Amino acid sequence: MKKRAPLVVANWKLNGGTDLICTSVASVLNKSFKAEVGIAPPYVYISDMVNFLRNSNILVGSQNVSKFASGAFTGETSAQMLKEVGCTFCLIGHSERRQMFLENDASCHTKIERALVNGLMPILCVGENDQQYELGLTQDILYRQLHQALPNLELQGKRLCIAYEPVWAIGTGKAASAEQVQEVHQYIYQELCAILGEEAAEGVQILYGGSVKKDNAAELLAMPNVDGLLVGGASLDPEHFAQICTIA
Ligand code: PEP
User: Fold this and answer.
1) Residues within the annotated binding site for substrate?
2) Quick one: which residues bind substrate (predicted)?
3) Is residue 46 within 8 Å of residue 90, measured between CB atoms?
4) What is the complex's ipTM, to 2 decimals?
5) Residue-wise over 45-84: b if at least 16 C-beta within 10 A, else e?
């Protein structure tokens, strides 16, 4: 059974600017979605986004967070700073950060702790790459990512999400089928129960990301263990994103 309204999150990556903020805000503002909707623009636009969406229910979040609290870490942004400027969530361990910026399961764990302590909802991204998929290693990869990033968290009264994003589906137009996603989400739920205990696992929403479009959103969300969507490319078209949110 679904625990709460689906969560649909836009990940703009290194895209967008003032124009996209204005058109995106215009396309989601004053619409009433049944889904909970979040947008993660690049850091520099977070404050503007928060201001524009001040009187709405739309959440604003970041695409990353520092594993450090403060100090001599040039270029970093802490969880406390993100909270202060109005973020409510942050993505952690996106595959692009794992591949290109050397993030690993241990840094994800620290970042999740920092986010939780500072009142941000972490969205931990996990998923196998093409080669691992071809070799049938999906569950092994997820097992490692989840068991290393999630132990010993203080989750009482806090929210945590997992985004299953098979790397072979990100930005490729080749989304996983709804049945494939359901099977993997069921496995993730099972491992969450093992790591966090059943009660805490029940509260964790599991999102799917990877070439989500308005055409496949409904069938993905119809799956019993799909609690929401993480949308990359399609979220850069404000009308398209608003349609996905409406479908959800
Ligand atoms: C992502 O990178 O988080 C993502 C889901 O991308 P896309 O929707 O473009 O596949």
Assistant:
1) 11-13, 171, 211, 232-233
2) 11-13, 171, 211, 232-233
3) no
4) 0.97
5) bbeebbebbeeeebbbbbbbbbbeeeeeeeeebbbbbbbe
Q: What is the pTM of this model?
A: 0.97
Question: Ligand 1 pocket, 238 CB below 6 A?
Answer: no
Q: Atom of ligand 1 at shortest distance to CA of 163?
A: 3
Whether 63 and 13 have beta carbons less than 8 Å apart is answered as yes
Q: Is 3.20.20.70 the CATH number for 7-247?
A: yes
232 CB less than 6 Å from ligand 1?
A: yes
Instruction: Going residue by residue through the chain, which has 248 residues, state the pLDDT in tens, using 9 for 90 and above.
Output: 677 899 999 999 999 999 999 999 999 888 889 999 999 999 999 999 999 999 899 999 999 999 999 999 999 999 999 999 999 999 999 999 999 999 999 999 999 999 999 999 999 999 999 999 999 999 999 999 999 999 999 999 999 999 999 999 999 999 999 999 999 999 999 999 999 999 999 999 999 999 999 999 999 999 999 999 999 999 999 999 999 999 99
Domain boundaries, the chain: 7-247
